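From the pipeline queue, job 12 of 40. The input is one protein chain; the requested action is below.

Action: predict structure.
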Amino acid sequence: MKAGESENSCSQWLNATPSFFELDPGATQKVQVLLQVPASPKAKQSKMGCNADQTCKREKVLMAAIKTQSFGIAETFQFVVHVFQSPPTVVDKSAELISFREISTPTDSTRVLASKEQW
């Protein structure tokens, strides 16, 4: 889902610092993921979200040519942090998976699955 598309999303409350950085091989970087819950009635419900950190596409792409055909390799990596927010006032912490099905067609290049939950 896109950020904020679900009524149970807290993605609009998430912030990562730093939001952009460069790493040399073998280096590490600490990233602070902050959940800022607003003082609103929606904050009294359980929410979830994720912060997906992905590498930028490299400017230099390894290229190889075989006769008249060529191909390239671009390295990318992604790290996903799942965030769940359950305020102490929420006593019913149940959920039900109502449906889970494939919605892609045989001609689609990727498989797409859809689920419907009840909280």
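Job complete. The chain has a mean pLDDT of 76.
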